[in-house]
Backbone:
């Protein structure tokens, strides 16, 4: 059995050997002590020309403290206190990514006639590369607890990880992609051929569209439909507000984290994703250029640099769109999925992008977080779409059972089904709750319970009927969209020949539609959307857990009412875009999560909810509570609240995950101007978010609130930030 040395042991035993470099990576001049580095070694050390050392002393500062003896030896050689002309030393250097890496310096010293050093030149070689240069095939080395084997591949010596069997895993990974893709495509029976009847249907449709366009000065929506009329793929847009989970949903379809998912990253160009033969991307520029990228160059960093508002402000690169092709992606052939900007974070170029994108979308998947439901902005957007739509309620993996006093009072299933029911109160579209996280983690384990729990099978199965004669279905969607646009124009001020031509085009397209038949999609029921996941009910109903939860409840209440805003007045007015956030806070204060939703019965959204001894205005009374709390209607229904502000402390509830959009809603509220005269409390709450996400997401919340307050000349509010019963911040000003 071959002896296995650690890399450090090998460095001590075998590493030192004289070497005269031919093409030095490092060159230092004396007596100036200036130092110069090759571009190759800077790349290896993750340094840029601006951040690399400029002097020998700065070069020495990169050494790890444990290599002080090496620095002493080098300094002695520079001072002429040694006879070596060629030498090798090994030490750890601090690299630009914050990691210390081991390097071997093979150097040569030149001296003048007086014996003083004039130049030091040499090669910096990573220790691992040096080991490979001196190893034979089959040699083993231990690095950070993992065993690696030297192997020769196509004439080049490299490492194979025996601990994790990376090569085997990579082969299995590729094989899984191929198998999944073949199985998936075999089930789909996709036929890309366009039959003659659809060709005639497209040509007839084009004639009516062209006739209507000729009658109008300009109509961008009709122009967009005309532009994609011959596109045989069905265009599906992933739409929603920021932080709703659109990019995570798209990545789960691709099987990898390719589209950046950062909360603050706003896409400002359209990103089209399709299943493809090779992993590649096309970058289409506004000047007509097309750049092709493939292989490892196609990664999330590149996509972020090209598409995000932070790295490509105002689309300074002049990119028209990105098209990405991923083999084995969970995107049926014949479908094109398009990632869109978050609608509530649009500025400048983002608005123009959306105006160009929306008319091109045949079908919309609207994404919203399951626990927050639909906001006022969601409703405003949805009513303007006027086309086929599927609701996807994301992040079901974050939902957990709710406990009060150690007992489950609301199961995960109930919460998810309540969210589905709340959306169905407004819309007749189908709704599927999903977990993009579980889908991505189990992309190649599609028979596993976790994959089934993600509900992504249901999304794909729901869309599959559209693939039967996909071009025909795309034409139907486009004709329906055109009819709505034309009929909307006819309700305007069209007169004379223009009106007659538009009317004729609308009637003609309606006749074409009458002969196409209906597209029948499956119906999603409450039973099949919950069949893949269980409630996760746990038996934690013991005395200790009840006592701990009771203590947390008491601390929550004491810290909330300990804010300076309540020093002289315990009467509260709970405000917000909707009642759900206000009810969540109220339920924590009175220890009853069942009150997170409206009380049973037909309670109007316009009504106040009240708990206390007196009822100053008509309201629905909540269960008795020892503090006087009034829950106001959603902001859009609230009338002049001046008198209420005089007698109560305003508490404004905002979603912790949507602080920016919440502050934006606040700026449009009917009571916004009153905040310049009254002290208020800003309450940001969320249930269970931080079990799965890093807490640095909330680190910006206080600064965002302070910035908003200062910008609008408001009285600085007290801040109360919490998650379930965990208090993140209770700060008074």
Residues:
């Amino acid at each position: 059995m071959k002896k296995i040395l650690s890399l450090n042991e090998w460095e001590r035993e075998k590493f030192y050997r004289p070497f005269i470099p031919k093409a030095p990576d490092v060159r230092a001049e004396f007596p100036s002590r200036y130092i110069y580095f090759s571009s190759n070694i800077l790349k290896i050390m993750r340094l840029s020309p601006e951040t690399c050392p400029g002097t020998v002393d700065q070069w020495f500062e990169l050494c790890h403290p444990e290599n002080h003896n090496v620095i002493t030896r080098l300094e002695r050689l520079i001072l002429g206190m040694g006879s070596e002309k060629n030498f090798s030393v090994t030490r750890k250097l601090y690299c630009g990514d914050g990691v210390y890496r081991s390097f071997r310096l093979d150097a040569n010293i030149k001296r003048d006639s007086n014996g003083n050093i004039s130049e030091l030149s040499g090669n910096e070689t990573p220790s691992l590369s040096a080991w490979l240069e001196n190893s034979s095939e089959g040699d083993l080395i231990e690095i950070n607890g993992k065993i690696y084997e030297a192997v020769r591949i196509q004439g080049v010596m490299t490492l194979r990880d025996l601990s994790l069997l990376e090569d085997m895993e990579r082969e299995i990974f590729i094989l899984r992609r191929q198998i999944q893709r073949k199985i998936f495509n075999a089930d789909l029976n996709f036929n890309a051929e366009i039959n003659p009847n659809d060709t005639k249907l497209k040509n007839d449709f084009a004639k009516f569209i062209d006739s209507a366009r000729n009658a109008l000065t300009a109509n961008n929506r009709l122009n967009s439909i005309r532009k994609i009329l011959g596109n045989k793929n069905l265009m599906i847009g992933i739409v929603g507000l920021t932080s709703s989970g659109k990019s995570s949903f798209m990545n789960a379809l691709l099987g990898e984290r390719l589209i950046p998912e950062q909360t603050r990253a706003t896409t400002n160009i359209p990103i089209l994703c399709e299943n493809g033969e090779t992993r590649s991307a096309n970058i289409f520029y506004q000047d007509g250029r097309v750049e092709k990228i493939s292989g490892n160059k196609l990664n999330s960093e590149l996509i972020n640099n090209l598409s995000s508002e932070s790295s490509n402000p105002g689309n300074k690169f002049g990119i028209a769109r990105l098209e990405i092709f991923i083999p084995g992606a969970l995107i049926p052939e014949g479908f094109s999925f398009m990632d869109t900007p978050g609608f509530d974070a649009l500025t400048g170029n983002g608005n123009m992008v959306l105006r160009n994108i929306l008319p091109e979308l045949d079908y919309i998947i609207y994404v919203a977080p399951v626990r927050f439901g639909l906001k006022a902005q969601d409703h405003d957007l949805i009513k303007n779409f006027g086309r086929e739509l599927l609701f996807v309620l994301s992040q079901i993996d974050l939902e957990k059972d709710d406990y009060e006093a150690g007992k489950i009072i609301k199961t995960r299933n109930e919460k998810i089904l309540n969210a589905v029911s709340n959306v169905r109160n407004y819309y007749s579209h189908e709704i599927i709750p999903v977990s993009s996280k579980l889908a991505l983690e189990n992309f190649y384990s599609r028979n596993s319970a976790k994959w089934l729990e993600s509900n992504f099978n249901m999304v794909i199965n729901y869309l599959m009927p559209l693939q039967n004669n996909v071009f025909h279905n795309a034409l139907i969607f486009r004709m329906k969209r055109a009819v709505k646009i034309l009929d909307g124009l006819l309700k305007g001020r069209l007169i004379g020949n223009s009106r007659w031509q538009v009317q004729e085009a609308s009637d003609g397209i309606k006749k074409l539609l009458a002969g196409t038949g209906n597209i029948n999609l499956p119906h999603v029921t409450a039973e099949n959307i919950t069949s893949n996941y269980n409630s996760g009910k746990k038996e934690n109903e013991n005395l200790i857990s009840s006592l701990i939860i009771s203590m947390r409840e008491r601390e929550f209440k004491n810290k909330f009412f300990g804010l300076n805003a309540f020093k002289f007045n315990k009467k509260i007015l709970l405000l917000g875009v909707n009642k759900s956030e206000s009810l969540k806070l109220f339920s924590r204060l009175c220890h009853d999560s069942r009150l997170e939703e409206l009380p049973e019965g037909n309670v109007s959204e316009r009504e106040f909810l009240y708990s206390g001894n007196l009822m100053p205005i008509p309201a629905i009374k909540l269960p008795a509570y020892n503090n006087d709390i009034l829950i106001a209607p959603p902001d859009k229904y609230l009338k002049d609240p001046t008198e209420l502000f005089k007698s109560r402390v305003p508490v404004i509830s905002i979603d912790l995950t949507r602080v920016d959009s919440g502050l934006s809603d606040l700026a449009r509220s009917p009571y916004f101007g009153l905040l310049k005269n009254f002290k208020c409390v800003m309450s940001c709450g969320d249930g269970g978010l931080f079990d799965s996400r890093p807490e640095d997401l909330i680190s910006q919340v206080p600064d965002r609130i302070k910035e908003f307050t200062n910008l609008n000349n408001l009285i600085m509010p007290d801040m109360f930030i919490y998650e379930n019963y965990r208090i993140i911040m209770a700060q008074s000003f």
